[in-house]
TrEMBL record, chain A:
The keyword Cell wall biogenesis/degradation belongs to this UniProt entry's keyword annotation: no
Annotated signal peptide: none
Domain UBC core: 4-153
Top-level taxonomic group: Eukaryota
Protein name: E2 ubiquitin-conjugating enzyme
EC number: 2.3.2.23
Cross-referenced Gene3D superfamilies: Ubiquitin Conjugating Enzyme
Key words, A-Z: ATP-binding, Nucleotide-binding, Transferase, Ubl conjugation pathway
Lineage, top ranks: Eukaryota, Fungi, Dikarya, Ascomycota, Pezizomycotina
A GO MF term: ubiquitin conjugating enzyme activity
UniProtKB/TrEMBL annotation, chain B:
Residue ranges crossing the lipid bilayer per the database entry: 221-246
Localization per record: Membrane
The entry's keywords: Membrane, Metal-binding, Transferase, Transmembrane, Transmembrane helix, Ubl conjugation pathway, Zinc, Zinc-finger
Pathway connected to this protein: Protein modification; protein ubiquitination
Organism: Aaosphaeria arxii CBS 175.79
Stretches the record annotates as Disordered: 294-328, 410-510
Organism classification: Eukaryota, Fungi, Dikarya, Ascomycota, Pezizomycotina
Domain (RING-type) ranges: 335-378
Protein name per Swiss-Prot or TrEMBL: RING-type domain-containing protein
UniProt keyword Zinc present: yes
């Protein structure tokens, strides 16, 4: 990784640390600054309220030319998070072809918070969960809350 | 059918002056003509009882004879079937390796055993048997009780030759032939012509050749298969060369379009390009001045065309050159890559043809080694018509695939719903989904999130478009289909009024989203060129070498 990229990550961390968005905690390791650990509280107005989710943000070598990679380390029942041990997300500005260098990690984190409140059904990674969200909202809410109880307490 | 089973037996008469000159390998004999001698082709009803020791590629053959019995009882019984003047071992020279084919009637197991024993002592290549008095038609298979010898079938293993059963009339016919053709020329029936041709003392014998599957003659099935295979190869070679020719035309065509500036290989996602140093050197490099100042009065600059060979330092100290810097460029106070603000009259900046400016330290390496597209707007930095690499088949394939997908997506989006209708009151609540959550759309939320970084674009004409500009990537089909550079500010204005913009209220948001998904398909489902090639199975790559048009 180039020194420019490192400088930029440091700068972004400094900004985040100075003004961390509500409901999150960023764990930053200076030895390994390309991997951020984020503890995210389920937003109050969402069905994930009360859950605590661990996320991992990995910066590619080409950062900021390529988007950071986001993965949920805590299992979550969500149409935009892959239902496997990777817990990966790929939508919106996280897409390589939509990512632009001026975008920042903090906007990525805000996007994730927003998605917890309202999933992006049209851009889902788990079509079955997206379908359930559309067709059977009660069942979806129940499942999502179950998972919060089971994995995110 | 078991291998090495007999397909045919050919029996004919041979004539030779000196039996001592005949050997396995040097058959010095003359075959007598059919009309003046014994000839018997047997092509059906041959039952292979044992195919022991049949050598691959060589049919058993030899002089026909009847092996000698040992017991008087068997000899007595044999007289019913075998004439006393048939060819016996005694009628053939000793101490020389003949090729022999034995023939005998199978009238009792005990006597048959004596025949086999005698045959094992002679250079017998094959044994023909027949059951006198048996029914006509195919002799029974070896499993039939009539072939039992009382030894549990060990005779087959003990024998050093194969055994074939023929029908009784044929066997009797051979026996009759053997009695007539086992002496000299003078002993023959109908000998007038032969006597003139050959010496009286010449020997005359019957000869048998057994045609087995493994024989030297190529069975017709194989010939057929070889022909089919040949045609197949011909078809493959023909198709392959045709496709190679087609592909060469496509390569040339793509190259022509690239040179004409109709196709941008990287913007289309066909091939990742980089910017050569000499092109990079042609991009304007100047010292940043505050956007507040009048661009006309802005300090040291130079025209892009003037500095192909001049070193950077000298270029920067050439303040008398005309002013190429646009206000658009100067209106960007921050380097989008390192997020540092440009310092007026101090920071050196590189301006790309799309007018985006960056620190040269930030952008140059990226352009030299990663991409030829502006990281902000994805406009190519390379001059239109620049064809840097050899056009490969893979590039042709990707270009065709991507163009096709884009066209399909556009067609579908167009026929389904050209544009969602716009309600009269554009300030009306957004979609039901959005209002229910009491939250703005994701796009506008992200846009909101970006308010923090608005200083990246502090130009007044851009600020108003800020949220929709962010949405361009994720929400606008048109933007996904054709990377329209956001270089010209007037274009920016259309973004907000674009009827396909989801922020405009309409009841067809779902339909609009579907179109968007289709439109995005074109870009999302095509993996970046570099990654795609490595994860492709080897067989597919091999097949493409032969059939270059193969998808
Ligand atoms: Zn910079
Ligand atoms: Zn640009």
């Amino acid at each position: 990784m180039s020194t420019g990229a490192k400088k930029r990550i440091m700068k972004e961390y400094a900004e985040c640390a100075a003004d961390t968005p509500a409901g999150m905690k960023i764990i930053f390791d200076e030895q390994n600054m390309t991997k951020w650990e984020v503890l995210l509280d389920g937003p109050d107005q969402s069905i994930y309220a009360g859950g605590h989710f661990k996320l991992e943000i990995t910066f590619p070598n080409e950062y900021p030319f390529k988007p950071p990679v986001v993965s949920f380390k805590t299992k979550i029942y969500h149409p935009n998070v892959s239902n496997d041990d990777k817990g990966s997300m790929c939508l919106g500005l996280l897409r390589p072809d939509e990512w632009k260098p001026p975008n920042k990690v903090v906007s990525v984190l805000r996007l994730i918070q927003t998605l917890l409140i309202e999933p992006d059904i049209d851009d889902s990674i788990e079509p079955s969960i997206a379908n359930e969200y559309k067709e059977n909202r009660k069942e979806f809410d129940k499942n999502a809350k179950d998972w919060v109880k089971r994995y995110a307490k | 059918m078991p291998s090495h089973s007999a397909q045919s037996i050919e029996i004919y008469t041979i004539e030779f002056p000196d039996p001592y000159k005949i050997s396995y390998h040097n058959d010095k004999f003359i075959t007598l003509p059919a009309n003046a001698s014994f000839q018997l082709p047997i092509t059906e009803n041959i039952q292979t009882l044992s195919n022991k020791d049949v050598q691959k590629g060589s049919d058993p053959y030899g002089i026909l004879y009847v092996p000698d019995l040992t017991s008087d009882g068997c000899k007595k019984e044999e007289e019913q079937y075998v004439a006393n003047n048939v060819t016996r071992r005694a009628n053939l020279p000793e101490h020389i390796e003949y090729a022999l084919v034995a023939v005998a009637p199978w009238y009792s197991a005990e006597c048959m055993n004596e025949y086999f024993e005698a045959a094992r002592d002679a250079p017998v290549k094959a044994f023909l048997v027949y059951q006198p008095g048996a029914a006509a038609g195919m002799p029974p298979p070896v499993s039939d009780s009539s072939w039992l010898m009382g030894d549990g079938g060990t005779w087959k293993a003990q024998n050093t030759f194969p055994t074939y059963a023929i029908v009784p009339p044929t066997g009797a016919l051979i026996m009759k032939g053997l009695s007539e053709y086992s002496g000299n020329i003078t002993d023959l029936p109908y000998n007038e012509t032969l006597v003139d041709m050959f010496a009286d003392t010449d020997y005359v014998r019957l000869w048998a050749t057994i045609g087995t599957e493994s024989g030297s003659q190529l069975p017709s099935l194989w010939v057929f298969l070889v022909i089919v295979l040949g045609l197949l190869i011909l078809a493959i070679v023909g198709t392959s060369s045709f496709m190679h020719l087609m592909q060469r035309r496509r390569r040339n065509d793509l190259q022509r379009r690239v040179i004409n500036g109709e196709v941008d290989l990287e913007a289309l996602g066909v091939k990742r390009l980089t910017v050569p140093q000499e092109y990079l050197d042609k991009l304007p490099l100047y010292v940043y001045t505050s956007s507040m100042e009048d661009p006309e009065k802005a300090l040291p600059t130079e025209p892009p065309q003037a500095h192909s060979n001049t070193p950077t330092g000298r270029r920067l100290s050439a303040p008398d050159l005309p002013q190429p810097v646009s206000s658009t460029a100067l209106s960007q106070p921050t380097c989008a890559i390192c997020l540092d603000d440009f310092v007026a009259n101090e920071s050196r900046v590189r301006e790309l043809p799309c007018r985006h400016i960056f620190h040269p330290d930030c952008i140059d390496t990226f352009l030299l080694s990663n991409s030829s597209l502006c990281p902000m707007c994805k406009t190519s930095v390379l001059p239109s018509g620049y064809c840097p690499t050899k056009i490969t088949n893979n590039m042709v394939r990707r270009e065709r695939m991507i163009t096709r997908m884009n066209r399909n997506a556009a067609d579908r989006a167009h026929t389904a719903h050209p544009a969602p209708p716009q309600t009269a009151d554009s300030q009306a609540p957004l979609s039901p989904r959005r209002t229910s959550s009491g939250f703005g759309s994701i796009g506008s939320r992200i846009g909101g999130a970006f308010n923090g970084s608005r200083r990246v674009f502090s130009a007044p004409d851009r600020t108003s478009n800020r949220p929709s500009e962010i949405e361009m990537g994720s929400n606008q089909p048109a933007a996904a289909l054709s990377p329209v550079p956001e270089t010209t500010p007037p274009n920016q204005q259309t973004t907000t009024t674009d009827p396909t913009n989801p922020t405009a209220a309409h009841p067809h948001r779902r339909e609009w989203a579907r179109q968007r998904a289709l439109a995005l398909l074109g870009t999302h489902h095509v993996a970046p060129a570099d990654e795609e090639e490595s994860c492709e199975p080897r067989w597919k790559r091999g097949l493409r070498k032969i059939f270059p048009g193969f998808r």
